[in-house]
Structure formats: C-alpha cells, structure tokens
Amino acid sequence: MDNGDIDLVDAYAVETPDDNRDLYARWAKTYESGFITDNAYRYHIGVAGAFLAAATVDDGPVMDVGCGTGLVGEALRADTRCPELLSGLDLSPEMIEKARSKRTPGGEAVYSDIYLADLTGLLPIADNVYGGITSCGTFTHGHVGPDALDELYRIARPGALFAVGINPDHFIAHGFAERFDKDVAAGKITKPTINRVPTYGAGPNVEQRSPVVVFRLSTSFLTD
Predict the structure, then answer these.
(1) Going from the N-terminus, what domains does the chain have, and what CATH number goes with each?
(2) Phi/psi of residue 121, each to 5°?
(3) Bond preceding residue 61 cis, omega within 30 of 0
(4) Count of CB atoms within 10 A of residue 142's CB?
(5) pLDDT along the chain (224 residues), means of 10
C-alpha cells in the first residue's frame, strides 16, 4: 500500500496500538498534504474553538491528546486566548516529528513539549498537572474508547477544562453518553455541553458533524 492510498477505511480498521503505530508511520508523510487537504478537514478547528470559547486564563497548561501532526495545537496557538504552555501527546513517533516542526506565526514551537505515549496504558505524566485537555481524532474507530478518560482525569487538575472530539458513530457504539452521565452522577465532572461541529469541508463525508464534548473536572476531584 502506498502512502497516498491510506484513508479513513484503513484508520478505522486498526485494532491494536501496534496497528496504529504502523498505520501512522506510513501515513505521517502525506497525512496533511493528502487526507487533510483532499477532505478540507476542519474538525480540529471546532475542537480548538470549543476549548477557547470556554477557557479562562487559569486553564493552562494544556495537553493536546493524540496531537498527531499538530493541527489542534496550531489552531489553539493562533488565538490570543490560548494559554501560554501547550503540550502534546501521541502514539506515533513519525506524527510527533511533524508536530515538533510546527511553529507559531512568531516563530515559537507550537508545543513546549511532546510525549510519546500510549493512551491505553499509564501515561508518563504525574497526577494533577494540566489545567486544560484537548483531543481530536483519538476517540474514534480503531483507537480508544471511554475507558481512556480515566487517565486523562488523572493528569488533569481539579477544575480543568476538557474539549474532547469524539467520532459520532464511536460516541454511540461505545456508550460515551452513558459514561459521561455516570461521571456527572459520581461528581467527577460537570454536566457536559456537546457541540456538533463540521468535520470536513469536502469529500464523501462533507455533511458529517462530530461531537466536541466540553466539561470541567470537578474542583473536588481526586485520583484514587
């Protein structure tokens, strides 16, 4: 398979972290020039916008989970409301290499640091570090389900702002609504606001609108 032949069908077909690593190792070089450009991908803009619309000056540092080539980071850092410190995390070394090269209009690195890590396991990050969490393209077919939220809650500070993009079919099939309801009832998070934003501006899925779930970790939340 040539890099140019990789598409959503391939992305949705992966089943393990190793499958993901292999896919993105092959896809990283053409991800933005091919898939992103061909489909006028814009989900990252909606995720960043949802975060910034709810953010305060205290909602940093921010962790961009599944940062990929840095699309959400670029969108965040293009706005003056973005907290100063922005970290990234991804499973793919090749995608991280692309993200490390991204610069703001002022010439600064988009990400202050980037972690190579698997969200299905324990992250190499201490408890209660981040005041904001964003994610786009990670909670989707072949990637991670709602159980991964536990690790994100752990690394976030009490009161942290979350803006999490979730594939619309994955949202239903894996019970995300029920998971969020359970976490609200348990006092872990505030009641989420679900924004439905455009995913693509062109291509076969141009009509798709995908959820961005915005909420805060409870101010009294403590990891077990």
Answers:
(1) 3-216 (3.40.50.150)
(2) -120, -165
(3) yes
(4) 17
(5) 51 58 64 81 97 95 96 96 94 93 93 94 96 93 84 98 95 96 98 97 93 96 65
